Structures are given as C-alpha cells and as structure tokens.
User: Which sequence fits this backbone?
C-alpha cells in the first residue's frame, strides 16, 4: 500500500474512533436529559432532588467526554496525511521490531487490511521516546527495546 494512502486510511480510522466517542457522549447527554424531563416531582421531594442531581452529574460527565473528543478531533485535523519525513513526527507511521505505530491521537489498536497499528499520541510515553528518531535508531521503554525499521 502506498504510504500516503496508508496514512489517510489510518487517519480515517482515528476520525471514526472520535466520532463514536462523540456519539456515545451525546447519547448519554440526551438520555440523562430525557430521564430528567420524565422525572415528575413526587411527594418524596428529597428523592426527586437526588434524582435530578444524579442526572445533572451524568450530563456533566458526558459533556466533559464530548469536550475531550472535540479536542482530539482538533488535534487529529492538524495532522497532515501527505508527505514523508526522515524522522518520526506527528502523522508518521512508524514500523518497529515491536509493532507498527501511527503518531496522531491515542485511539488504541487499529486494524487495517489484516495489519495491526497502535494509534498513539506524540505526547504519550512511547510517542515522546520515538519522536525525532530516524530509521535504524533504537530506544527502550519499560524494559522493552525498539528499533525503528521504517518511517512513512
């Protein structure tokens, strides 16, 4: 697969990951709002107020998750899928002796055409370790040694 096409597909998988997180958060907000609206004030006033407070906490938690997903989307949209670099940087696909990595956002394991890639943030511990390295360079993290075999 051509390097630029690989980057675009990995970028799209990361975008899909963010969209799923945003949808889940929005559904949580909608469900909490609906539950709050359906909750009628009963004779047990404390129970009603406690229920409303719990729904508000749930809404706030989901709003925070939605905000975090929006930040990830902004970060992802700043990463170019074009070009090729001689050293590891944001947007690089890095092949090592211990796995394949896409430096973009922390999105976990991505599978593309039967191959496994780890979507990691450039600010993650492994992202920081490999940033700026070139093909042939090595580094260790948590007692595990990595050697960069290819950078796309």
Assistant:
């Amino acid at each position: 697969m051509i390097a630029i096409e690989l980057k675009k597909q990995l970028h799209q998988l990361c975008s899909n990951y963010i969209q799923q997180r945003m949808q889940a958060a929005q559904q949580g907000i909608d469900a909490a709002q609906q539950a709050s609206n359906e909750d009628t004030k009963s004779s047990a006033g404390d129970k009603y107020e406690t229920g409303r407070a719990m729904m508000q906490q749930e809404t706030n938690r989901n709003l925070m998750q939605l905000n975090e997903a929006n930040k990830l989307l902004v970060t992802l949209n700043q990463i170019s899928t074009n070009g090729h670099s001689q050293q590891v940087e944001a947007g690089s696909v890095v092949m090592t002796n211990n796995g394949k990595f896409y430096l973009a956002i922390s999105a976990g394991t991505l599978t593309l055409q039967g191959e496994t890639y780890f979507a990691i943030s450039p600010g993650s511990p492994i992202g920081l370790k490999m940033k700026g390295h070139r093909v042939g360079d090595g580094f260790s993290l948590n007692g595990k040694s990595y050697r960069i075999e290819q950078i796309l």
Observations:
- DSSP finds three helices and six strands in the chain.
- The chain has a mean pLDDT of 91.
- Residues 93-151 form one domain.
